[in-house]
Input
Amino acid sequence: MANHELHSSPETCHWGYFDSQLPPQLRIKSGDTATIHCVSGAAEILPGEPYNVLPEHREIIAKLKPHIGRHILTGPVHVEGAERGDVLAVEVLDIKFRTNWGWNVQRPLMGTLPEDVAPPPEWGQCSSVEPRAFGGNIDNKHFRVGTTVYFPVFADGGLFSTGDGHGVQGDGEVNLTALETSLSGTFKFTLHKNMKLNNPRAETATHWITHGFDQDLDDAAKEALRDMIRLITAKTGLKPEDAYMLCSLQADLHVTQTVDGNKGIHCMIEKKIIGG
Output
């Protein structure tokens, strides 16, 4: 049994991907041990003094570029005799810290609650495909003449854009598109300083509408329903549990669309039930 060591460097690391065509950086035999040195974090993660950043970490970032993913990996290690269909057991014998710092980052549109963290303005462009907390591709067929849509503001000035006109659309927009067409719209813009929203809401002549967006329709439904409960409690003074019961009696859940990445559910309740 032999002991080996594999250092992290631009030559021994690859950034963000696995590839069976990568040349081995270390060759060992079954039963051997290897100490493999790793680094973690892109340039924007690196701290200043008094934290020590490994010189090879800076060199790796300078010479390699991320591809597909964001993890800096050291290897690969080739085990003599290993073939497809075999099993490779890797026992962890020891782990040591290499630096006196670590990092954690919260990225919008990722994690368990992507809908709770809006993309920051410095991200620049966001896809027009998915509906999100700021609006986007909501595809609600009730957005028509006489409807008012309330959007939470995430950028100074509001920065409203519109398009993707529909002549006709069913709930679900099931084959990906509605009757897509070119339209001209005339809009009145009114700023509400003391109104706080999680997602866009809409008001028609007869109904209040709340929205939920998620890849899972169940979670989208929960989001739309929770916002409807918030709306009812604000307008009526009912307790949330009573508003929940009222929703079961008077509110309707509709599938807005199932084709835009983030699926949509909207919840509707008549204004005569809770007031305008």
Notes: Helices lie at 55-63, 217-236, 240-250, 271-274. The radius of gyration is 27 Å.
